Amino acid sequence: MSDLTRFDRYLNHDGPAALVIREHLIPVEGPDGVLFPPTFAAGDGFPGGYNIDGDPNGANVCLIDTVGSQANRMEPLFAEEKYKALVPQIVVKAGDKEVKLLEAGHRAGDAIVRCSELQSTLQDAFRAVLEGDAQPLAKTAPTSLVFGVWDSRDTQAKLPRLVASTIRAFSVQELTRHAQFIPAVDYVAEGILEEPEDLRDAEGKIKGKHPFAQRGFTHVPVTKFESTHGGVIATGGVRRDATLGLAALRLLSAGKDDHKTLTLRRYILGLALTAFTHNPSGYLRQGCLLTLDPTKPRELVEVYSNGERKPVEISHDAALQYAKDAAEAFVVGKSRIVNFDKERAKKDLTGDQDAKAKGKKSK
Question: What is the model's pTM?
């Protein structure tokens, strides 16, 4: 039986500021297993590699999966058969490739959709957001309201993430690793291949990189100066922290129409709760497969503006049923397959270059 009022306490201004989930995770090998964090490029004083804050060999925090990466893992959920009726399925055809809007990194602000047949539709929707009406955007790209979007290349309309999730490891020990490549045959020793005569200098040392090594025809040892990242051991555990910002959700409106605003908020809340309560895949990358820690229960609490915290139970099935009911009341936008427009992309590039030139001239 449909009950659209069951979560209305989250839409009231005296309701909780947020819902918070804490999940304790462990590598599949066990609590002392080695896991591989992401590596980041150097820049702004950061040498590159793992993002570890604090004492490298003591109390520290290591980033395992960023808030952006987590969002990009959760959003494609709504393309699955069980959930696809909750949102419009927008697909952009670019040449022989088809890209779902749910997979675009910048969502409704991504170049793939900005330079498609939906360009004017989304421009109007973003302008409506700036005027206090998020309903048009919810009809085309509702997950942009759930996971956040910034139309940075055009209207500058910006919406915060309602669902944010991050995975961190605590008190990690950083490891390194070395490698030795051994070819199937020692091609030079067996007389199968001959080294180029000008490969070595007068002292017999190889000048630059051995061409055989680059193509896999000779031994390639990694020296101690070329050690690579070997993962970390999280002696302080691994934890996923996720929030659903109810205070931010309550800022969404459909202009000055109170009924439409309530219907919109219920719809977006349903989508947010569905993503928030879904158990995400434990595979993050090679060497980083995490599961729930069976010895530490998952925590789900309502957090109020006065700091009060109340445990709550919301099952994924209950969230999904509410989302279906709210989606039916809202009337989900139309699914579409649209074409990427090369001419629009050229104009977009020209406009961006003109804007940069004007910016330099004004400086």
Answer: 0.84
